[in-house]
Every structure is written in structure tokens, then in C-alpha cells.
Amino acid sequence: MTTPPAPLAKAPDRLSLRERIPNIAILGPLLALLLAVIFFSTQSDRFLSPQNFSLIFQQVSYVAVLAIGQTLIILTSGIDLAAGVMMALGGVVMTRLAVNSGLNPFLAIGLGLLATTFIGWINGLLITRLRLPPFIVTLGMFGIVFGVTQVYSRSETVSNLPAPLTFFGSTFQIGTTTWTYGTLLMLALYLLTHVILTQTSPGRHLYAVGNNPEAARLTGIPTTRVLVMVYTLAGLTYGIAALLLTARTGVGDPNAGQTEALASITAVVLGGTSLFGGRGAIIGTLLGALIVGVFTNGLTLMGVPSVYQYIITGLLTILAVAVDQLSRRKA
Amino acid sequence: MRTPTKLVTAALAATTVLGLALAQGNQPVIGLITKTDTNPFFVKMKEGAQAEAKRLGARLMTAAGKADNDNASQVTAIENMVAAGAKTILITPSDSKAIIPAIKKAQAQGVQVIALDSPTDPASASDALFATNNFQAGVLIGRYAKAAMGGKPLKIATLDLFPGHPVGIARHNGFLAGLGIKDSSGQAITAQTPANVVGGVVVCAQDSFGDQAKGQTAMENCLQKNPDINLVYTINEPAGYGAHQALKNAGKDKAVMIVSVDGGCNGVRGVQSGVFAATSQQYPLKMAALGVAAGVDFAKSGKKVKSGYTDTGVNLIAAKAVSGVPSQSVQYGLANCWGK
Question: How far does B284 lie from chain A, in Å, by closest CA?
């Protein structure tokens, strides 16, 4: 089934931006983030500083990049439970090839990206060709990838990394504030994804498939190809997240990423993207990731123990979906 | 949805057959159940048990939980091993209380159950315990830090495990007891103190899950809160390396002392390079070897292991010894470390 997309005048990709992305999708998280920032500024005099904000960006960078892939998938009403362990595999492949096998670091990075992209492609094939639910496929893949990572690394952390592997952890100055190249990469990826989703036909196809796969298929959109592409690209973003995590910690850690798939889903949900597919915006996801980072940082500055931080993040997540539901009823 | 179910059933059947096959022959069968099979500490423990079992002519079955607090998998493993004919089960309990009913059931069928690395609660629920005294491990690095800081006013950050885990609490409180710190009501901190003591000189206490990335984030935020932190305790060396990265990024790695617990080879190398001032080394291989030997004895003589607690020892490893606190050299630590 590879019919070229028919140039139909009534195709869903002609919907206006406003119809596809309700303002609430961005306004909600933006408001939440601003309120959080204002609140923590009143609680700690160390919170409101460019250096502290740089730190929050560094802390959320790898989860935020995982969440790019997760957003693409959730927009098609799928879900990816293997995102975090795929990131761990990417990091271990890059670091082991560069350190233990003595490969050129850039080649090692390339192969790490290839590994996660390949697994994403397999996920896409299983979901589309075998018609398996994304939840099941990625749940199974979580176990497979986690196990493979442990076997391949013998559960050992790889350290003493060559410079290219830690480049994105290195810093530059803006005024008196230190920023990392990893933060820049993350922001650039968000911008790129935003442009693709809002300005290009593949982006519009993705929303159409998420909204109503059957309708999308009938209007000539190659839904299978769109889905396989989405999971493959998501795999690539997990590889980039691996590069960010590796640069941040300075090691390849096979035990990383076990809870990060859920953290990335939290960011997507807080960002106002609907789990039912077809509604949401990538910039919302960035705001969602920042909300979690701001709360973790701000509550620590206030001296709130970790246990209460889990409770508050959980409450926020439920609140975000509740707001989403209420907005749907009004719509 | 048919295929996965069939697969799972087939896999289960295969495991059972495998277990029964293991019980064939007249070699004593010994089970080892670790908290996870990903933490190098447990990986080494398993290797030590395998080597000892081979030496003494026993068969070793192994299983593990999926994560550090996964009790359900451990219960399943006990049941399967008893069914497969294991006469001794060695276990590092993930949940010190919740595992007890499963242990009692196994004991009722004549199986000897020995706890390794961490106790059951109450400790008397297992036939014996071979473990490090985690409180003592904390005390050693606390004493070392007190002497090394030379009476400077302390501002401490602790990067802990996760809420409520007895090993995490024992190390954290042992460290504070070694420093001579009292709890908020002025009482001395002991191994019986039920929860992590925080506040006072402990200006920041955050969970790290023993994970390097989470440890780094926690340390960065602690430093934002209190830039003048001068002493850091971490639950294990991976969290310690995360703390070091955060301190290095803030230009404070030379000025702030990090002490840790575990003594894996990667951790001892951190003491060697000056990342950590000291670490308390423990000996998982010894725990495993003692456990397997006790299992072989029981199979051959029918005599259960001597009940109670056997301390497998802990040593303070420090690059620079301080007066009044006995410690071992980095060379000793490297010669006796586990992992790579």
C-alpha cells in the first residue's frame, strides 16, 4: 500500500493551526511554569538567578530530548515504555566502542545513534505489520533492551571517555552565566521538531494519523509509513539523549534510564499533549520537562525532602490531565 | 494476544523443567537470590557463589529481583527453588519484612534460609545472617571525616538511597554517629534509630537511588541551596561520582570532601585519584562463599548453620590516613575490591 498522498482539497492537513492545537495546550503549562517560578522566587533567594536556570536546563536536558521522541509517538496515540533503556543502550554502545574497542569516538557515537534508531524502527515494524499495541511492544522491548545492555556491558560503568563523548557537557559563558552545549542542542532539537510538526506535510500527516487513523488513510495519507517513521525518529532522539546523558555524567552507565521513560511521559502529559493522540504541541513538552525540573530544584532549595517531591510531581501530573479533559469537554 | 501468553507459558514450563533437571543427580542444590542482577555488588556475589559451589561440588541456582525493592520476584524465586529441590537458599532480602512469610514457608519444608548482605526484620526469621554491619561502615567514614575536617564547622549534604530502606538508613545514621552528631532531641544516634536523621548540620538530604545521574542532579541542587557545603556523604560510589561531577562543574571539587560506602574497584580507584577521601569497603565474595559452604554442610551432615549474625567485615580505605582512625591503604583496597 504505497499510494502517493492524493492532493485532496478537504485533506486534514488543511486544518488551521488553531483548530489542531488548541491554545490551552501551550497556555496551561506556560502558566503553570510561570506560577512555579514566581512561587519558588518568593521561597528562596537563590532560585531566581541565570546560573540556577542554566542548571535546571542541564538537569532536564536528557529527559527533555527523550520526551521529543515520546511526544511524536503519543501524538499518534502510541506510547513508548522503552525510551529510557534505549537511551542507556545507546550510551553504553557509544562509550564501550570508544573506550574498550578503541574506535574513533565519532564513529562510536554514530553507531550508538544507529543502535537506538534501529530498535525504534523494529518497534515501528512490530506495531504496524503485526498490528500489536504500542504498549505491549515497547513493554517487551524494555525487557529485551535492558537485558541486552546489561549483557553487553557486563553491568559495568564505562569511564575515562574521550573528549567528543563529553563535548555537550562542556560550557561557554553568557555574561557571568555558564551554559552547556547540551542545553543548546536540546533547544535546537525542539525548534527543529516544532518547525517539522507545524510547517511541513509529514508533520501534518502525523497529527492526522493521531486524530483518526482511518480517516487519514482514506484521504491518502500513508499511515503505516508515518508510524514506522515516527518510531524510527523517536529511536534517533533517544540516541541523542544518550549522548547528552553521557556528556553530563562523564560515564556510560548501563543502569541508567530505568525510570526515564515514565519521566518523559510525565513531561509530555504536563505539556498538554493528549494521550488519545492528535492533540498537543512539542513546545508544551519542553515546558512540561522544565516544570518537573523547576519543582525538583525549587523544592530542594526550600529544604523539602525527596519523598514530598514525588507526591507533588504526581499531583501535578494528574492535575494536568484533568485540565486537558475539562478543555475537551468544553471543546 | 495469544502468542505472548503461549510464549510465557512455554518459558515457565521450560524453567520448571530446568529446575527439576538441576535437582537430578546427588549434588546438593543451593539457591542464591539477589536484590538485582545488575548491581556489580550482586554480580560479584553471584560469581563468588558460583566459584565456591564448583569447588565444593554443589549446584547453584540463581535468581534476582528486577529492581532494588522488588519483593514479589524474590518470593516467586524462593517458591521455585524449593520446588526444584534446593535445600539451602541464600537471599539478600529486598524488603526485610515482606519476605518473611515466604521464608517461613520454605523453612517449614525443611529448607535452610540464610540472609546475605542485609538482615530480615526481625533478624531471627532467617537461619543465619552473613553481612556487613552497614551502621559500622557509616561510623568508620564518619570518624574519618571528623578527624580530617579538623574541627571546622560542618555543612553536610547526604545523597541517600530511597525512603525507608534499612541499609540506606544504617549507613546514613552510622556516618552521623561517627561524626559524633546527636539527633534533633539531643539523643545519641544508634543502629536502632528508625529513620535518617536530617537537619542541623545536615543542611541537605536528597535521594539518589544510588544512581550517578540522579546523584549529580541532587548535588547540584544542594549546592544551589547551600554553596558552603564542605562535606558530602553518598550511599555508594556511583552516587559519589555524580556528586563529584557536580562539585567539579561548580569549581568546588578541591574544597569539598566526599566519603562513601561500598569499596567496589571503581570506588577504590576514586579514593586513589582523590575523588573520594575515604570509603568503607565490604566483601560480597566472602558473604557468598560462607553461605555456599554452610549450604554444602547442611546437605552433607544435616546440621543447620550456627544461627545469628556473622560479620563479614568492613575496612576503611583511605589514601591519607588520619591519626586515631585505623584505615587500610589504597593498595589493600584494590587487592580486595569487587567488580572491575
Answer: 16
Q: Residues of A with CB below 8 A from B160's CB?
A: 306
- β-pairing, B59-64 vs B88-91, is unpaired
Nearest CA in chain A to B163: A307
Reference B203, options B158, B168, B169; nearest CA is: B158
Burial of B185 (C-beta count, 10 Å sphere; 0-12/13-18/19+): exposed
Q: Cα(first)–Cα(last) distance of chain A, in Å?
A: 35
| A238-247 pLDDT, tens digit each | 999 999 999 9
- According to DSSP, the residues that pair with B233 across neighbouring strands are B158, B259
Chain A residues within 8 angstroms (CB to CB) of chain B: 44, 46-47, 52, 55, 58-59, 62, 136, 140, 150, 154-157, 159, 171, 245, 248-251, 253-256, 258, 296-297, 300-301, 303, 305-307
- Residues in chain B closer than 8 A to A251 (CB atoms): 212, 241
Degrees to nearest 5, angle at CA B106 with B97 and B71: 35
| One-letter amino acid for residue B79 of the chain | E
| Residue B46: its H or E element | helix B40-56
Residue A24 in grid coordinates: 490551552
From chain B, pick out residues whose CB is under 8 angstroms from the CB of A155. Answer: 37-40, 43
Q: Nine-digit cell at B261?
A: 560506602
**pLDDT tens string A151-167:** 999 888 898 899 999 99
With beta carbons less than 8 A apart as the criterion, state whether B130 and B48 touch.
Answer: no
Q: What pLDDT does residue A309 have? A: 85
Nearest Cβ partner for B340 among A46, A140, A156: A156
- Of B209, B146, B155, B216, the C-alpha closest to B174 is B146
pLDDT band at A87 (very low <50, low <70, confident <90, very high): very high
- The C-alpha atoms of residue A270 and residue A279 are separated, in whole angstroms, by 13
User: What is the average per-residue pLDDT within A305-319?
Assistant: 86
Q: pLDDT band for position A331 (50/70/90)?
A: low
Residue A35 has pLDDT above 70, yes or no: yes
pLDDT exceeds 60 at position B104: yes
Gap between the Cα atoms of B24 and B27, Å rounded = 8
